[in-house]
C-alpha cells in the first residue's frame, strides 16, 4: 500500500546557463509539480506511487530513471505514442526565472481515466492520501477526467484527498480554472494554496470568508502559503501561523511542491498541526536555498540542518 498516490505530467526540463535566445549550454533533468512532491516524500521515507505517461523516447527514459532512482513507484507510468513534454527554464536575472513549456499534445497531456483505474486496480490496498494539483486538469479534458476519477476512487476507498491549487494561468482561463478547482476543492480533505490562489478554490470576499467556505463544505484543513512571510493553517477550531525559515533564496522553482511534500509527510507521521506546518516550511526553505525543481529537497536526516548556526560544517 503506498502512503501517497499522485498523478500528472512529468517533463524533461532544460535549465539554460544563460539567455536561451543567445544559445549556449543547458542542464537536462526532469520536472513536474506532482513528481516534485513525490520525490520530496520519498526522500522523507514515504512510499509513493506515480500515475502518468511518457513518450517512447529518451526523455521518457530519463523521467522513468530519475523517478525510479528517487524511490518513486513507476509501475503506473505508461508509454504513449506522443512525445515526452519539455519545459525550459531561463534565469533571466537574479530572482526572476522565465519558463517556457512545450507540452501541447505531449504524452503526459494524454493521461486518461483508464490510466487511473488501472493504477488503483493494481495496488494491493488504497493509498492513505491521494495528491492532486490544479496543473493536471488544466492540460485538457482527458487529464481533467483522470483527476476526477482518481478523486472518486480515492474517496470510495477511504483515502484522504489533498488538492494543491497550483494555478497555471497559461494553461486555462481563470473562469474555467475557478469552476474546476472549486469543484475539486469541495471533494478534498486538505486544500493548499498560495494567498493569491485561494480565490480560485472557494467563494468569498476575502481570505477569511473563503477559508470558512471551504471548512463549512467539508475540507478539514486549509493551508495558505505566504512565501517569505511563512504559512497559515486553518481547521474548524484552530488557526496557526508560522514564520518562514531564514535562508538565502537561490531558486524559488519547486518551493511550493517541497512545502506540500513536507506537510503531507508530517500528516503521514501523525504530527500535530504545528509539527506538520513546521516541516512544510522547512522543506520549502530547503528548496528555495538550492537550485532545481526537486534537487534541493531534504532527506529525513537533513531536516534539522537548518537549525544549525550559519557557517556550520557538518562532518
Order of helices and strands: EEEHEHEEEHEHEHEHEEEHH
Strand content: 15-25%
Report the structural category.
alpha/beta
Mean pLDDT: 94
Main sheet summary:
9 strands, mixed
Question: Residue share in helices?
Answer: 25-40%
Tell how many strands the DSSP assignment holds.
Answer: 13
Using only C-alpha atoms, the radius of gyration works out to 18 Å
Shape verdict: globular
Poorly predicted sequence stretches spanning 5 or more consecutive residues: none
End-to-end C-alpha gap: 37 Å
Number of helices: 8
Can you describe what's shown?
It is a single chain. It is built from eight helices and 13 strands. Helix content is 32%, strand content 24%. The mean pLDDT is 94. With 315 residues, the chain is an alpha/beta fold. A hairpin with a 2-residue loop joins strand 12 and strand 13. It has a nine-stranded mixed beta sheet with strand order 5-4-1-8-9-10-11-12-13, sandwiched between helices. The two termini are 37 Å apart. It is globular.
What is the secondary structure topology, with strand pairs?
Elements: E1 4-7, E2 11-16, E3 26-31, H1 33-43, E4 48-54, H2 58-69, E5 73-79, E6 86-93, E7 96-102, H3 113-122, E8 129-133, H4 141-156, E9 160-164, H5 174-186, E10 190-194, H6 207-216, E11 221-225, E12 231-235, E13 238-242, H7 255-268, H8 273-288
Parallel strand pairs: 1-4, 1-8, 2-6, 4-5, 8-9, 9-10, 10-11
Antiparallel strand pairs: 2-3, 6-7, 11-12, 12-13
Helix pairs in contact: 1-7, 3-4, 7-8
Amino acid at each position: 500500500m503506498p502512503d501517497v498516490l499522485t498523478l500528472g505530467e512529468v517533463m524533461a526540463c532544460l535549465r539554460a546557463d544563460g539567455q536561451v535566445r543567445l544559445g549556449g549550454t543547458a542542464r537536462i533533468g526532469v520536472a513536474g509539480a506532482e513528481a516534485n512532491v513525490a520525490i520530496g516524500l520519498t526522500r522523507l521515507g514515504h512510499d509513493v506511487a506515480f500515475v502518468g505517461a511518457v513518450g517512447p523516447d529518451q526523455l521518457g527514459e530519463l523521467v522513468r530513471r530519475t523517478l525510479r532512482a528517487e524511490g518513486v513507484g513507476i509501475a503506473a507510468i505508461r508509454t504513449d505514442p506522443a512525445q515526452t513534454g519539455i519545459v525550459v527554464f531561463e534565469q533571466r536575472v537574479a530572482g526572476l526565472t522565465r519558463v517556457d513549456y512545450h507540452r501541447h499534445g505531449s504524452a503526459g497531456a494524454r493521461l486518461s481515466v483508464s490510466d487511473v483505474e488501472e493504477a488503483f486496480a493494481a495496488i494491493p490496498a488504497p493509498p492513505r492520501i491521494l495528491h492532486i494539483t490544479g496543473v493536471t486538469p488544466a492540460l485538457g479534458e482527458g487529464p481533467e477526467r483522470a483527476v476526477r476519477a482518481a478523486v472518486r476512487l480515492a474517496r470510495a476507498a477511504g483515502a484522504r484527498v489533498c488538492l494543491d491549487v497550483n494555478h497555471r494561468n497559461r494553461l486555462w482561463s481563470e473562469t474555467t480554472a475557478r469552476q474546476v478547482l472549486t469543484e475539486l476543492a469541495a471533494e478534498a480533505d486538505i486544500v493548499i494554496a498560495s494567498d493569491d490562489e485561494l480565490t480560485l478554490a472557494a467563494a468569498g470576499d476575502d481570505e477569511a470568508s473563503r477559508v470558512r467556505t471551504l471548512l463549512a463544505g467539508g475540507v478539514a484543513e486549509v493551508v495558505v502559503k505566504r512565501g517569505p512571510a511563512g504559512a497559515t493553517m486553518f481547521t474548524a477550531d484552530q488557526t496557526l501561523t508560522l514564520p518562514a525559515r531564514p535562508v538565502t533564496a537561490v531558486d524559488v522553482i519547486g518551493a511550493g511542491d517541497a512545502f506540500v511534500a513536507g506537510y503531507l509527510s508530517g500528516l503521514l507521521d501523525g504530527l500535530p498541526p504545528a509539527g506538520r506546518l513546521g516541516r512544510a516550511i522547512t522543506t520549502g526553505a530547503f528548496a528555495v536555498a538550492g537550485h532545481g525543481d526537486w534537487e534541493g529537497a531534504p532527506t529525513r536526516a537533513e531536516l534539522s540542518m537548518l537549525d544549525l548556526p550559519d557557517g556550520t560544517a557538518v562532518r
